[in-house]
Each structure stands twice: as C-alpha cells, then as structure tokens.
C-alpha cells in the first residue's frame, strides 16, 4: 500500500490483524458526512460528495480514474462498490453505504452479515477510539493528502523526527474576524514579503545609473502597483489570497536590457532611456499574457503543464542570480554574513519559538534581520569604521583622483548607511503617475524577450495557484479560473508598464511560504493591507528610507529569498512520483542545461569582462552571442532569450515532459476542478466566483 493513501485503515499495521485497522477505520467514518439524497437525485451531487469526503483522493492530492483503480487494488478499498477491507489478517469486510453512510459487515467465508454483537462492538469502538486515532495520527504516519496541505482539524507544525501534521488555517479564504485582526494580519502578510516587495529597485536602479531619488521613486511606484494589483486579483482574478508584485521572473531580463551595448556607453538620461524601453517591452509582453488568458489558450496549455515543468522553471528563477548574490553581498562581509546568519537562525533554529502567542521570528525573519543589521551598520558608520583620510563618500568614484581613495570608494558606497542622499532629495509627498519617465519606446528585440518571460511568469503562477488552493483548504480552481487569473496578471503587468516600475507584475511565489507560516488565508486581510500600501506609496520619504538600505545588506537578504524561491520551486515535485527516474532525469537535465547553456554564451563576449562587473557578466551576453542571422533586432532577442536560465530551463522541461512517455500519476499532472462541479457546489462558487455585480456585467453566473 502506498503511504500516500488518505483512506488506508491499516497503514503501518500490516500483519497485525484487524484491531488497529478497526480503530483507524472507525475514526475515518466519523469524518464522513452522510449523503442525503433529494427527491430529484442528481448523479453530480453524489460525485461531488465522494470527492469531498476523500473517496476519490489519490496519493498526490489529485483525482483520476486510473488512480482510483490502483488505490482500490493496493489498499483493499473497492470504491465502485463502497467496500473496504479492514485488515489483511482478517477476512471480515465492512461495507459503506454510499447514500446513508451506514456501516454493515459481512464475513467473506459465509457471506452473511455481521452478528449484532460484532456490529455493536464496531460502533462502540468508533466512539471510544476516535480520540486515540487522532493522537496516533499526530505522531505517526499520515497520508500524502495531509502532507500536500489538506485541512483537517487538530493540525499543526511537525515536530522533530515526526511526520508533518495537518495544516490548520487561523482564518480561511472568506473569514472576516473583524477590522482590527484584518488590519494586523494584512500588514503582517506584507511585512513578511518585504524583501520581495522593495529590494528589486535597489538592484535595477543602480544598474541603470539612476540616482538615489530615482530609487526612492521606483520603490514608491512598486508599492502603489502592489496594492492596486493585489486588490484587482483578489476581486477579479483567481480570488485566492495572493499578493501581486514585481517578480524576480522579470528581474533577469531587465538586467539583460540594462547591460546591452546600446545603453552601456550612455552617460546622459541613461536611467530614463532604459526605463522607457523596458516600459514598451513590458506592455507588449503583458498584452500577450492577456490574450493567452482571455482567449482560452491558457486552458489548453494547462494540459501540458505539470509539476515536472513548474519545479525546475521556478527553481531556475532563483538560481539565475547565483553570480550576483554573494559577489555583491561580499563587498561588505561584516554586514552580509550577520544578515544571512540571522535569517537562518530565525527561520530554522527559532522557527518553533512563540512570543505573545505568535512565532515572530519565523514570520518576520526578513524585516527583523534587516533592521538589526541595519542598526549595527549605522553604529559602524557612526564609529568611523568606513572613514578614510582624505576620502569623501559623496564624491562619485569616477571623479576620485586619489588612488588610495579609489580603493575604498566601492566599500564606502556599499557599506555606509549614509551613502544615500535619498532622504535629502525625496519630497514628503509624491504620487506616482502614468508615464512618469516619458513615453514608452517599442523595439522588436526587447518585446520578443518579454513575450517569452511572460510565458514563464504564467507557468510560475499556475504552480502557485495549485499549491495555494490546497494550502488554504479550498477546492482546486477550474481551468477557466486559472485562465482568468493569468489574464488579469497580464493586465497588472500592463499597469506596471504604464507606470514604469521597471519590471512586470505577477503572483509572488513567496506567497506560499507566507501563508504557510502565518496560517492566515483571508483575502479581506490582503485587501486591507493593500490599501495601506497604496497610502504608503504617496509618502515620498518612506521610499527614501527604504532606498537608503546599504546595497550589501539588500544583496544578503536577496541571497536568502532567491534560495527560498529555489526551494519553493522544487517543492512542486511532491505532487509527482519523485522517485521516478523519468522525472528526476528531466528535472536534472533541464536545470543543468538551463545554467550551462547561458554560461556558454558568455564566451562570445570577451570585451564585457573589461567593462562590466563580474556579477553583471551573465546578463551581458545578448549583444554578442553566437546567434547571428544578420538581423540585429532578432539576433539580440534570441541571444538574450538563450542567456536567460529560466527560459532555457522551461523550454527543455516542457519539451521533455510532454514527449517522454509517462503516466499522469507519475508526472503528477495537475487535476483542476470542472466547470460542472462549480455549478453545483455553493462553497466553490463562494471561493472563486466574481462579485455579483461584476458577474452580471459579463453575463455569467459561475465565472
């Protein structure tokens, strides 16, 4: 029997008779809600009841006919007939009436019903052993359904050496605990995502030769767009509790465009010129994503997207920055190493420590670590640790004439807490507005890049939608709902291109980790938190404070977040048969070549090693790669696409997974709910349906 079965009454008790199996099966029956037929019985109602009670759940949390057959053969459950064999050491069988939920017994030898004494004993055992089974499940093996995030009462955190316990949400998707808790949990959700929300501008703006004032303005723009797009997605998208924001998926292509030959030698208006070209490319890529979702093409594409494709693709997003992470953080090791150590201590060693009933170290690991080390760096700066005789940190490194000061200019810029002048130059109130950097510029080369990137962003979001729906104990969305979510993400990226945030907007993969540690899945909390982000975006000085974070500190935090992105991506393999040689080969080959092929392109850019810093070299191959057709725009686009780790990894994994033979169970193909199920399921309609007024505008009832 596979350990993944959620209905195995004898899991771990084979060969021990039927005693333990009776107790576990009795507790299982306590969880089964009887199906009460109506006069006009609809077969769909019975099928929906069977899915909800778990009679058609397989090891991966998915549903399919073949797995039900496999399940019944291995566990002793005959699903079509509703029979369950209680133990391999006993010949007695128990029948579950699929209509009333009654239990009747029969002896396989005589084919007669259980005696009154046996039936009475079984009924008494149900009540007596329910509590025993609950405690046994907490310390023993549980089904893969629970591991995958299904909700069962009494769940919690796994202890050392034990199987993970069922996940319990403090507040579900539609819960409304009141304004004060919503306010608190809303801000908590965004605080735990602080590193992903505000640190991207600290990477891209300096690369564009933007000023500290520009960095503060881009941070304020991202806060505004995060708030607006999250509200839109919560109301009009999948309606899952997912924060939308500037994603790391768009960070690598942004750096590729920034380090191209066209902008490399610019000295005047370089920041605005790069931003305008990025705006045009993001707008085109977002329109492609909108068409993909609204046309229904995404519903067709979902048939070819499995966890074997999603896992290496998302992992490659984080691995793409391994050459940037610590080389940038290492410019000031006295700051970067303490940050990384604190992050590891808070998230791993102190993850079970509670203060005032909350696991603050785990929830606020990123902001706490950054604040502590930022304060430490402030005292280092104040104490003169980065003061060098005759050197001024305010003078640009290109204007420094003293050789001794040139050696220390880089350290002063990356380590001092007063190196930024954003506080002096940023206004108190600044409202980000459309086309604030100028009108977008459209070039074929950058537009092609963003079209590929928007496809990767869509695949990333598919995995996040599926994992989040299981995590928040909701039924899986339909293909139409997933397409609607992807289309709205395209519209959100369109807003990002119009406002000029420098990157597109998509669902943050880190949402899964945040919901898992906070145990709050209320979309109302996310909406209230998003409203506060919009208000904060109007405070120019807040953006200035965030822009003053030392670059070494920001790079150290990003090292941890990128590593977390890799882990979250690979965690999608839990829905597959992860021991399958087919799967591990596809994932391994895709990841290795996804890193190695872009590295191959770097050998065609020998001059870049003299011009670009080492951490920008992987993003400078587009201008002089091996793809040469004589069409300059096409050559740049294809070399850029081949230099992006996540795009190469996605293409390889997609082709291999859909051409190498393998069963749906082996591949872990995502099983989405059907539109017919949603029509007869009020709970599902409440979770995913558009607001009534919006649905009336579009003329649909369950969309």
TrEMBL record:
Keyword Transmembrane attached: yes
Query: Biased-composition ranges for Polar residues?
Result: 60-75
PANTHER family according to UniProt: XANTHINE-URACIL / VITAMIN C PERMEASE FAMILY MEMBER
- Protein name in the entry: Nucleobase-ascorbate transporter 11
Q: Which portions of the sequence form the region Disordered?
A: 1-25, 39-157
Q: Where is the composition biased (Basic and acidic residues)?
A: 39-48, 114-131, 138-147
Keyword Transmembrane carried by entry: yes
| UniProt KW keywords | Membrane, Transmembrane, Transmembrane helix
* Sequence intervals crossing the membrane: 182-204, 216-234, 278-298, 304-324, 331-349, 361-382, 525-546, 552-571, 583-601, 636-656
Query: What does the sequence similarity comment in the record state about its family?
Result: Belongs to the nucleobase:cation symporter-2 (NCS2) (TC 2.A.40) family.
Q: How does it sit in the membrane?
A: Multi-pass membrane protein
Report the GO molecular function annotations. transmembrane transporter activity
The record's subcellular locations are: Membrane
- Predominant subcellular localization, coarse grouping: membrane
| Organism superkingdom | Eukaryota
Record GO cellular component, one term: membrane
Protein source organism? Thlaspi arvense (Field penny-cress)
